Amino acid sequence: MLKLFNSLSKIKEEFKPINPGKVGMYSCGPTVYGHIHIGNLKSYILSDLVKRYLEYSGYEVRLIKNITDVGHLSEDDLGQADSGEDKMLKAALIEKKTPEEIAKFYEDYFKTTEKEMNILPAQYFPRATAHVPQMIKIIEGLIQKGCAYEKNGNVFFDVTKFSNYGKLSGNTLENLKVGARLEEHPDKKNPWDFALWLKAPEKHILKWESPWSLGYPGWHIECSAMSLEYLGNTFDIHTGGEDNIFPHHEAEIAQSECYTGKKFANFWLHTRHLLMNGEKMSRSKGNLYTLEDIKEKGFSAMDLRLLFLSSHYRSRLDFSWNALEQAHKNLQRINDFVLNLEAIASRDVSSDSAFEVENYQERFENAMDDDLNTPLALSILYELITETNKKISENSLSSKDAANILAFWKKINSILGLVLSGQAEIPEEIKRLVKEREEARKGKDFKKSDDLRSLIENKGYVLEDTKDGPVIKQK
Length: 475
Description:
With 475 residues, the protein is of the alpha/beta class. It has 3 domains: 19-271, Rossmann fold (3-Layer(aba) Sandwich), CATH 3.40.50.620; 295-423, Isoleucyl-tRNA Synthetase, Domain 1 (Orthogonal Bundle); 428-474, no CATH class. Helix content is 44%, strand content 15%. The protein has 15 helices and 15 strands. It is elongated, with a radius of gyration of 26 Å.
């Protein structure tokens, strides 16, 4: 029975989908004005983990991940973000490109990076710019219901009209009024009202006709429009980073529930920040790394993925190169484990004792059922590796047992999503050279054997001699 910590209720709840066997899920995607950094990737790994485990558990998952390509302002971190320079336009000016060119370039980069991280693609990646008519329709509905108001071509959501404002973040209007310092827009009724539509300045490039002005949508309305379009009034799970909780997700709830009169999302899952020397990793602090930075240091996307999985998604993770080095060693350990099993499973090796793998599977699933406890799940995998290696050293692991353990590994790796170096198909040429070298060794032609080993290594493969035969690995 899967239990997830719901940020809305602040407790672990048994997961029950709205429609049996099917899950609707929305994940806040990137604002495509720059390279996503590894702090962003930590959040995307969460939505990937949720999708993978739900599919492992037999659910059909419909994941929507939006692309924000308009209306995300540079002051979003400072409050309600109703004033400030549009990030898309700022990037366009710096790089001397159109906003559309900027968005396309960084959207492609985002998708390429997700693929490298082995993050399963969403069913849809809707772009905000393609859903402006839907946003306008919702804004019109909110005005008709008295939840929003227009002034001077700008439209704002009236937070006083939503009695449950603050139910996700705890930032109720009463709490916000205490000691709050906020730059007030002259057209707002209340300081904490947020923009649904803004009249565009003359030089603003991205703008659309609307009943109120030639302008552009606010940041928060985008996700409400796209989730409503692809998942309906109420859906099962909404994920994001903890920095999205307020104001973004709080605003999503308010405007969506005022518009539909129904609950917006049943479960809210938030990943904690990735830290660098105790501080949040962000562009504004200049302390971020991209996946390219990781690879330049000699690490892989899978090293980073395993590092994220080694920490619970609700725990803050302080990034360090030492931690990444440990993840690299753990990944190599898993890789060696799988290669050794494949070597034994492919040969006729018998044993008097049987290896029970069912207990490990039950414990692994119990860990995942407890709010996706990947650190505990991985510790169970490492325990299995230790026990398996012991059996191998004692020559007491049969081919049948090796095959059973491999089958278990493939099942749980559909959740972990680790692409191992040994999983790459070994070219026929390399297989032929390995066979030729084995024949040279048996004939005691050690010079030829050494020459062939060097040739194999020069082609990018490592050859390890074991008592069960040679094991080939990609460098």
